[in-house]
Amino acid sequence: MTATAPAPAPDTRTTRTYQAYATPLWRRVLANREAAIIGLLLVVIAVSIAVVPNFDSPLTVTYLLRDIAPILLIALPMTLIIITEEIDLSVASIVGLSSVMTGILTQAGLPFPVAAIAAILVGTLAGVINGFLVTVVGLPSLAVTIGTLALFRGIAVGLLGTTAITDFPEFWSDLARDNIPGTPIPGIMIPFIVLAIAFAILLHFTPFGRSLYAIGLNKEAAAFSGVAVGRTKFALFVMSGAISGFAGVYFTLLYNNARGDNATGMELQVIAAVLLGGVSIFGGRGALHGVIAGVLLIGTLGSALRLAGVTSDIINVITGVLLVLSVVSASLLAWLRRRRISAIGKKKERELAASSS
Amino acid sequence: MFTMQRSRRFGVAITAAAAATVLALSGCASGGGDGGGDGGDGGDANLSVTFLPKNLGNPYFDTSSAGGEEAVEEFGGTFAEVGPSEASPTSQVSFIQTAAQQGVGALVVSANDPEAICDALDEASSAGVKVVTFDSDTNPECRDLFINQATAEGIAKVQVDLIAEQIGDEGQIAVLSASANATNQNAWIEMMEEELAANHPDIELVEVVYGDDDDQTSFDKTAALLQTYPELKGIISPTTVGIAAAARYLSTSEYQGQVALTGLGTPNQMREYVEDGTVTAFALWNPADLGYLAAWAAQALITGEITGEEGDTFEAGKLGSYEVGADGTVLLGDPYVFDADNIGDFDF
Questions:
Q1: What value of ipTM does the predicted structure carry?
Q2: Residue A298: closest CA among chain B residues belongs to which residue?
């Protein structure tokens, strides 16, 4: 990162040293989209505690985290996928399919852990199908996953019809719902934090993670730099499938309910949160802490507004406006930056013209 | 560089301010509505009752919630209605959780799914919220009381009584049902046959036909019935789709006013046929009464007047006294008969 240009000795030109960064550290840390979303989250929490009755109870934390846990989980691989300028719209259908598999296998008499692992494997397989179609066949992921969105959902609803399986071992459903002893934090946060740390390391501190940004910014350049673009993307879709499968098992236990239409529409909630968290839909930009803050922001806002007695339609309107604002503000800032840079260039040109004449 | 920084911070500030305003506004708005509920905590009992229908914007549940609100006003509690915009199985869960967080006195729910909301209801119960279901029950162990709109016997009897009255207690009748394996309808038809045999020997049930709860099929089956049985005097259709389709056929045919039609229907579907004389009277329950009774039952649970045990009795305002039956069920009563005199009072 420290790009001090080595001065070629025989040249008469003066050595130019470049600063490693154009702005000081505090500005780089605080003045970015991730920090803005975290700030907004803190503002929303503070305002909610101040004005919304009952928001400050421990139950709020429990319910909030439990309900958004599937979105938090799926947002992890989704962030990586969107950074490579791809998208996976089939995640909610994989949740539904995995939920149905868990139900059917449990009903068939298999021990629950076996059924759960089988369901996660089904989710992984669904990810393999997505990955195969995107990377080996070379189709656009938007088209592929719109197709598999319908396909996986169709299989899920077809397997169970309109019936629901509601009988699961108490031990496991309690495990999914119980809090970490002595705290209002639900137990599902433990696997989530482990996964979040793993994904954060993978994305921000490994060559693999760095290659994702390279692919997102310019996949040809990435390929010529030695990044195995296809294999990387394939791995991401498989991860997405596996995590969605896991989220499906959790969803089933949380509501004690295996149905084909479980988690319908969740893919949009996940993608909305990822984009709100500062990941660019055009790839190459984004960080995990922003995404986690994005999911928490949408969840907290919904929870506070529900407690304040706002109807679900209005909550959707508010989240929608927030998302549009965040995307618009990102484009607006990019445009302003471009204008400034070109203004600097023009100024330099004028100065040059003035000095040479 | 400075312009960029400023505008960026400006954007962030605007978004934050907008979100804060929205929250503050909604918080204030609710402060006005919920203030009574919070204040109620200080009194003897927390008489705040929240209605959670299957979905909002459904005329049936608008009517039941209006009944609930009336009752809540009568006993001096605070009423609130929340609900999802679509009736999906897990969409009610977050609203149940919210009610538990708010610490409402009672939650009155029409369940979208008998099992999916059970755990959320259990948690609300352990947070001290009384749970009453109405219209659609959950598993009995998940709630304190279920307000049942009607029994199968009551539904069968009211329809037989209506047709007997309309055709002068003699002659041929037919039944236009839903599908051949519809559980509810088959149970009712069986009880109608028993009722006819026991109390109306001069009425002959000539045929049961099935319109599959499809408007066009029901319409065609009605036409076929009238041609097959020229002596037919009445039709019972114990399904809302069937009765509306049959009424539509009758109203445009030569049989209007000649062949009686009754069954289970909703006022909005049947209004024009009652007004043009095709249908004299039909039955269903009154959702407003259902909501009214549910709210009073909630009140009785909150004050500790009843616990939901079989044999408990409580007062329900204008509806009088009710007793809790087996499995914590309270029966609203006989189905409600809609005719030209009262149909104008209903909108569902």
A1: 0.71
A2: B19
